[in-house]
Amino acid sequence: MTNKKKKWSALFSAPLDARVAKFNASVRFDYRLAEHDIVSSLAHATMLQNQGIISDSDGDAIKTGLNTILEEIKDNRFDWREEDEDVHFNIERRLVELSGDAGKRLHTARSRNDQVATDLRLFVRARIDMLQKSLSDARCALLTQAEQHVNTLMPGMTHLQVAQPISFAHHMLAYEDMLNRDSARFADCRRRVNILPLGAGALAGTGHPIDRQQVATALAFDGLCENSMDAVSDRDFAIEFTSAAAILMMHLSRFCEEVILWSSPAFGCITLADAFCTGSSIMPQKKNPDVPELIRGKCGRVTGSLTALLMLMKSQPLAYNKDNQEDKEPVFDCADTVQECTDIFAAMVSAINVKVARMRTLLEAGYPTATELADYLVKQGLPFRQAHDVVATIIKTLSTTGTRLEEMTLKELQQHVPQADAGALEVLSAEYAVQARNHVGGTAPEEIERQIKRRREILTVESTSN
Ligand code: ARG
Fold first, then answer.
1. Atom of ligand 1 nearest to the CA of 86
2. Which of 24, 116, 235 to mutate to test the pocket of ligand 1 (most atoms within 8 A of CB)?
3. What parts of the sequence cross the membrane (predicted)?
């Protein structure tokens, strides 16, 4: 990138201080908007031409020039210059080189303020659409794991202590529900992203006879930003995008945390395929879960982008302020990070191998059917608080010898609850507890099958409507 000194305009008597020029420039990062900038300029030029604001020959020269520039950029032949400040001025400079006075007419009836707002909306829209595809892959991977483990029992935890038996499928579906909400949040966000600011000019609109709807239709926007002041200064759409991304990353980090725990020798109830693990430079025995750890770590980075944008907009007076040039890097970094994490997450979910027997051992170590026994005693007439206490006493006794609840004899039970019958022992198996929860939202295999089927259908409908 070159940096030659030149004056801003006839109004100025000296060029920018070299340090200021560097400080003010954004092309080193906003070059990433180039394609969107050209597409929106093409739509703007066509509208100017259709409205008779520029001549047909100027319109045609502009469009030819912009298409040439697009090719140059795609082929990495474009001469980006820091002295031209940003992506918009760089492209305009080249357009004037290619088409002379026609190129100087492209900026009629627009400002960089409505231009950059349009470009950024196009960027965010494209990234939402790309991310939605990866999110459905991730949801699909969770459903596939669920399908394979409808009957794999594991300890459902509260406080990271064994609580009640659930199926591994049930656990997977909890995450699918989270990602389902994430998809819905991005779809909702997209509706507010997809409205056109162009036409707002610098802040107050334009006196030229423009047709904003024509531009909106050409760029597939669903509507127009109405208030021109809000149109140029609003960055809610970027904040909503990073917010939805931060929530998604929080969900991914929760799953990753579980993968890290489960694959540790202490739990040892899953393995991650070798392609998703790394070794240690010193300890030959190690297989480290770097992938879920990195996703977990990147969650903070995406939340950082959200915070940066919220702080960027805080207290900004209307309308456009140069502060807004600072919106690009958080948006770009957030979009890249969440995209990469979601892609790798989908692949990582498929790389999980469940150690079914070990899951069962972990489950059985924690008296997971204690609640079943208490409930049974309640059905036999004991008040729940009393039943709770009796079962606690039983567990205290059993734990001294390391005996599991299912191993208890009727005689032993009757020492605590004289009226208990043999039926009490039947409720002590994990299978019984799981089967009994055959209601909407429960962990019974039949209900889980229903949930999987329904979620597969939702995914199919979503992918055909995208
Ligand atoms: N590079 C600027 C940005 O990213 C473009 C808009 C500049 N507008 C202005 N009035 N200086 O926000």
1. 1
2. 116
3. none
Q: What is the pLDDT of residues 191-241, one digit of tens each?
A: 999 999 999 999 999 999 999 999 999 999 999 999 999 999 999 999 999
Tokens of 228: 């021109």
Q: Give the structural domain span for 239.
A: 112-149+166-361
* 145 assigned to some structural domain: yes
Residue 28 contacts residue 328 (beta carbons within 8 Å): no
- What CA–CA distances, in Å, run from 435 to 165, 301, 363? 10, 42, 16
Task: Please give the model's pTM, rounded to 2 decimal places.
Answer: 0.96
| Residues 448 and 301 placed together within one structural domain of the fold | no
Q: Is the CB of 123 under 6 A from ligand 1?
A: no
159 is a catalytic site residue: yes
456 in the same domain as 333: no
> Which of 239, 384, 378 has the alpha carbon at shortest distance from 316?
239
What are 239-286's pLDDT values in tens digits?
Answer: 999 999 999 999 999 999 999 999 999 999 999 999 998 888 888 888
Q: Are residues 355 and 427 in the same domain?
A: no
Active site residue 399: no
Cβ(115) to ligand 1 under 6 A? Answer: no
* Residues 47-81: b if buried by 16+ CB within 10 A, e if exposed: bbbeeebbeeebbebbbebbeebbebbeeeebebb
136 pocket-lining for ligand 1 (C-beta < 6 Å)? no
